[in-house]
UniProtKB/TrEMBL annotation:
GO terms for molecular function: 2 iron, 2 sulfur cluster binding. It comes from Nocardiopsis alba. It comes from the Bacteria. This is (2Fe-2S)-binding protein.
């Protein structure tokens, strides 16, 4: 049988310092898990059955932040960080892209601690190119070419994220461009992060992220501004970082912290100074 199409991603992620993957299970494995302290919501059930407003309010009350805007982007962070990393890093690092779906992305809610646990992708399917060694695997879909692969990946990502964004927008009153901006920024960063750590070409990773971002927007996502590369030490192999296109508003929940280093509201001069200090002493990095 052809190799599991996600084995290559697991292997390369073992070399990364930062690799927030979701759990990858089949449905039978998920059904064997105890449900006494955990509810396993799919994106579809979370939205269609009206659970999202209840859990958003519970998460915000129990853990903060109190301000609705950082609370909204925080909910995206705790539900979508791992799935977005899975898609973006797999496409960049292995040339294979897992296809998300509202029914197969499960978001476990811990009843005891009132928080979301690591997301789960059930029965993952992966879109590959015709010459991929995993093309004959039963869990793969073979795209005609790279353009179709990116389109199918983006359409699956949009179909999975849009219900969450729509429900969160309706309940929190956070703008859809703000919410989709967080998603698109994160997608770009999760190709750039592995490229920087592995010493690869940051611009090449960014170009692929841009193509995938373009396809997500073509599928229906909305945003005001896209993220941008930020070369701060051109002679250093890790001297390129990026600036988000959309503020996550964390500073509103924690004013003493101020703007994040990648925040579009932060002055580039201060950003350059911070990043160069991190190069000199990585222990200073958050």
């Amino acid at each position: 049988m052809s190799p599991d199409p996600l084995d290559a991603l697991r292997s390369v992620c073992a070399r990364l310092k930062f690799a927030p993957l979701p759990e990858l299970l089949d449905l039978a494995e998920l059904h064997r898990r105890p449900t006494i302290r955990t509810e396993y919501h799919s994106v579809a059930s979370l939205v269609e059955e009206g659970h999202l407003p209840v859990l958003f309010d519970k998460l915000r009350t129990e853990h903060g932040p109190g301000h609705r805007l950082p609370a909204a982007t925080n909910l995206l962070r705790v539900t979508l960080r791992e799935p977005i990393f899975l898609v973006a890093s797999s496409l960049y690092l292995t040339g294979r892209a897992p296809l998300l779906a509202p029914d197969t992305l499960r978001l476990p809610w811990n009843l005891s601690h009132s928080r979301f646990e690591t997301p789960i992708v059930v029965d993952a399917r992966t879109v590959v190119l015709p010459d991929d060694p995993a093309a004959d695997h039963p869990d793969t879909l073979v795209a005609r070419d790279e353009a179709e692969q990116i389109r199918l990946t983006a359409e699956a990502l949009f179909a999975t994220v849009e219900p969450l964004v729509e429900a969160l927008h309706a309940h929190s009153r956070a703008g859809k461009r703000t919410l989709w901006g967080w998603v698109l920024d994160t997608l770009h960063f999760y190709m750039l992060n592995p490229a920087r750590y592995l010493g690869r070409d940051a611009e090449q990773a960014w170009e692929l992220a841009t193509r995938l971002g373009d396809a997500v927007i073509a599928a229906g996502a909305v945003t005001r501004r896209r993220p941008r590369l930020f070369p701060f030490a051109p002679d250093h192999p890790q001297g390129t970082w990026a600036v988000r296109g959309t503020c996550c508003f964390d500073y509103k929940g924690d004013p003493e912290h101020g703007y994040c280093t990648t925040c579009p509201l932060k002055c580039d001069g201060e950003r350059r100074q911070d990043l160069n200090e991190w190069l000199r002493d990585p222990a200073l990095a958050p």
